[in-house]
Amino acid sequence: MIVAFSVTPLGVGEDVGEYVADAVRVVRASGLPNRTDAMFTSIEGEWDEVMDVVKRAVAAVEARAPRVSLVLKADIRPGVEDGLTSKVETVERHLARGDGRRGPMSETGLTGI
């Protein structure tokens, strides 16, 4: 499964980067495949291990902020491994064709694009 999540401290002012870094440190220390971008951190693994990391990342922010917001989206797809890489590679392959063809979204496994 892949989980994309965002942990935002509330009540700490506008600059939240140091708080978010606490959460990202937990994710990176987990050893699970992960990526962080401007909006979300994605992590891949089994249900229990991924959710444990999310819980610990929230706790890291919660330890320093009076309130925490969590946004989470999960792609639960048994049997798929390396989805963090393969999903993006599939889209890049279609983009590289440059022929303007559009296939069904099920080809990529991505939604919302």
TrEMBL record:
<feature type="domain" description="Thiamine-binding protein">
    <location>
        <begin position="3"/>
        <end position="92"/>
    </location>
</feature>
<dbReference type="Pfam" id="PF01910">
    <property type="entry name" value="Thiamine_BP"/>
</dbReference>
<dbReference type="InterPro" id="IPR002767">
    <property type="entry name" value="Thiamine_BP"/>
</dbReference>
<dbReference type="InterPro" id="IPR051614">
    <property type="entry name" value="UPF0045_domain"/>
</dbReference>
<dbReference type="InterPro" id="IPR029756">
    <property type="entry name" value="MTH1187/YkoF-like"/>
</dbReference>
<comment type="similarity">
    <text>Belongs to the UPF0045 family.</text>
</comment>
<protein>
    <submittedName>
        <fullName>MTH1187 family thiamine-binding protein</fullName>
    </submittedName>
</protein>
